[in-house]
């Protein structure tokens, strides 16, 4: 996520006259910033020159529990100091005198949870900052770089999958806080979302959340949006997608896996309908990224699959020229998406079981 570098902690002492351990015995500590050390800021904004920190608050203990929860799936113990700093309006990772810190603003974290209506947003922010520490970004002396953000984003996506978050949950924070435009230190929001998606899908490939018992050889076409429900699309007739044209009986096009590894790898599989799929497989199922083609060779669907079903983000191309781009679950549009009519009109909504609900 957004990370602005080239800020630093020069000292945590209130005055140079007190030589005490970091944050020891003091209810609040002022952190005057100067240049020198790396600070990874989640939102990319500048941090106040004088940060007031409270290392012993109850919310700080909660934050430590969140950090422990993030580290547990990867088998690591917490070796970061977690401290609440009330006027940062941010969350960031830094190193001071060899000690690694996760610094956060409790009000900022509570606000993002309220805005996104889920605590996964705060957890993903913490995971991102931990990712910076674990990958050495805070100690390499090279400041903020877009590649560091991509790596931390991917780590966040992987960990949130392991914690039980959906792909949509894993990306909710960056969608709310990410910048649409790239900077010298941070990629644009779409690139960050893609990095989280890759991390999440990588974890899914290694540790599937669930597998369906019934496996279908060819994913069904999603139903067109219902125009009789009085929704925003009610005035627009949507033509039901036509069945892919069949090939002449004399056509002896090979059926089955025609190239690559259609069991556990990347390959091309041709179905009896002459439709085909090119992409990733797992245990003989379409699983991962891939493209479905109609029998005439035109693209039918491009996106992600789980256990032979269209899942997560993808684009479906209807025979009548309409198109749906958005989130899928169990073959059906579920989540945020846009239905494009062939003449240029569109319906942008949240879909449930293939129908817009708002």
Automatic annotation (TrEMBL):
InterPro entries per UniProt: MORN, Peptidase_M48
Gene3D superfamilies assigned to the protein according to its UniProt record, in alphabetical order: Histone H3 K4-specific methyltransferase SET7/9 N-terminal domain
Record's keyword terms, sorted: Hydrolase, Metal-binding, Metalloprotease, Protease, Repeat, Signal, Zinc
Protein's name in the database: MORN repeat-containing protein
GO BP: proteolysis
Gene source species: Spirosoma fluviale
Keyword hit for Manganese: no
GO molecular function term, any single one: metalloendopeptidase activity
Required co-factors: Zn(2+)
Protein family per UniProt: Belongs to the peptidase M48 family.
Signal peptide region: 1-24
Cofactor note: Binds 1 zinc ion per subunit.
Record carries keyword Signal: yes
Peptidase M48 domain ranges (all copies): 63-139
One Pfam entry name: Peptidase_M48
């Amino acid at each position: 996520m957004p990370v602005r570098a080239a800020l630093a902690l020069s000292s945590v002492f209130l005055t140079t006259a007190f030589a005490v351990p970091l944050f020891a015995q003091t209810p609040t500590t002022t952190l005057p910033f100067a240049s020198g050390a790396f600070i990874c800021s989640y939102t990319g904004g500048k941090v106040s020159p004088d940060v007031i920190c409270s290392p012993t608050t109850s919310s700080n203990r909660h934050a430590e529990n969140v950090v422990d929860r993030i580290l547990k799936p990867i088998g690591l113990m917490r070796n970061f100091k977690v401290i609440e700093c009330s006027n940062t309006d941010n969350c960031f990772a830094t190193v001071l005198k060899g000690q690694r810190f996760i610094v956060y603003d409790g009000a900022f974290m509570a606000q993002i949870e309220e805005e996104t209506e889920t605590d996964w947003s705060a957890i993903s922010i913490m995971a991102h900052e931990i990712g910076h520490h674990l990958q050495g970004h805070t100690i390499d002396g090279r400041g903020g770089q877009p590649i560091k953000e991509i790596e931390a984003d991917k780590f966040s996506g992987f960990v949130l999958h392991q914690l039980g978050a959906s792909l949509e949950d894993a990306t909710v924070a960056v969608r709310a806080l990410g910048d649409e435009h790239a900077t010298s230190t941070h990629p644009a929001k779409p690139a960050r979302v893609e990095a989280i998606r890759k991390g999440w899908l990588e974890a899914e490939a290694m540790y599937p959340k669930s597998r369906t018992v019934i496996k279908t050889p060819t994913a069904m076409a999603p139903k067109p949006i219902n125009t009789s429900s009085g929704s925003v699309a009610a005035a627009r007739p949507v033509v039901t997608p036509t069945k892919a044209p069949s090939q002449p009986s004399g056509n002896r096009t090979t059926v089955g896996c025609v190239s690559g590894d259609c069991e556990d790898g990347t390959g091309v599989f041709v179905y009896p309908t002459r439709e085909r799929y090119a992409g990733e497989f797992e245990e003989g199922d379409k699983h991962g990224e891939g493209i479905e083609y109609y029998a005439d060779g035109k693209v039918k669907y491009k996106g992600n699959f789980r256990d032979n079903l269209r899942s997560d983000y993808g684009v479906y191309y209807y025979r009548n020229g309409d198109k749906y781009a958005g989130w899928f679950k169990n073959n059906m549009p579920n989540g945020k998406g846009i239905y494009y009519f062939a003449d240029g009109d569109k319906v942008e909504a949240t879909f449930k079981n293939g129908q817009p609900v708002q």
